[in-house]
Amino acid sequence: MKVKYPVNLHKGMTALTVLGMMFYYHNFSTGAWVYLALHGSYGLMWILKGQVFPDKQWEQPCSVPYGIFVFAVLGLYWLAPWALISASATPPNYIMALAISLNLVGFVLHFGSDAQKYFTLKYRTGLITEGFFARSRNINYLGELMIYLGFAVLSVHWIGYIGITAFFAGAFLPNMIRKDKSLSRYSEFADYKQKSGLLFPKWF
């Protein structure tokens, strides 16, 4: 099997999982519906993204036990909707507005930069130092972090931050460091590194 299978299964099941939580806890508040709309649509768009401009890291083969492990770990992201929906609390309007804003901006950065990377590398190899990547070497990770930060904020509970914290420390940061080491083989990388941030855009 490929790594993308448990990942896509988790993403695709998110809308049904959140909706199931809403029925189980009889919580059909505005906050619950907003969460369902944001996280559910993100999961569906992730699957669509994999069809239009797939990331080769998810095409790697893996064993069935490892695939089950990946799915289980991704389940940490479902703690945020559980914290929100099980508490039967409606987040304040400003919290919902903040969560939606984080998701919208993060969505553009994440999907836009992944599309740029895919179609650029499809026709040429080497560093990508313009467009989304002009000021940040990992703008796609920043976008994904903003998306999941929006989910965590909407949960209005510390439990909602477990998933994003675990994945940043255990996956995102190590991947960014490995990427820098890999790109360092290009002679122009030193100059690019000076002009860009590892995660956050570098403007000065």
Question: What is the gyration radius calculated from CA atoms?
Answer: 18 Å
State the domain count: 1
Structural class: mainly alpha
Q: How helix-rich are the residues, as a percent range?
A: 55-70%
- Cα(first) to Cα(last) distance is 45 Å
SSE order, one letter for each helix or strand: HHHHHHHH
Number of helical segments?
8
Mean pLDDT: 95
The total of beta strands comes to 0
Portion of residues in beta strands equals under 5%
Return residue spans where pLDDT drops below 50 for at least 5 consecutive residues. none
- The global form is globular
Largest sheet: none
Can you tell me about this structure?
- By secondary structure, this protein is an all-alpha fold.
- The protein has one domain (4-195).
- 69% of the residues lie in helices and 0% in strands.
- It contains eight helices and no strands.
SSE order and pairing:
Blueprint: H1 4-24, H2 30-52, H3 64-74, H4 79-86, H5 93-123, H6 139-155, H7 162-183, H8 189-195
Helix pairs in contact: 1-2, 1-3, 2-5, 4-6, 5-6, 6-7
Give a brief description.
The protein has 204 residues and is an all-alpha fold.
Keywords for this entry:
69% helix; globular; 8 helices; mainly alpha
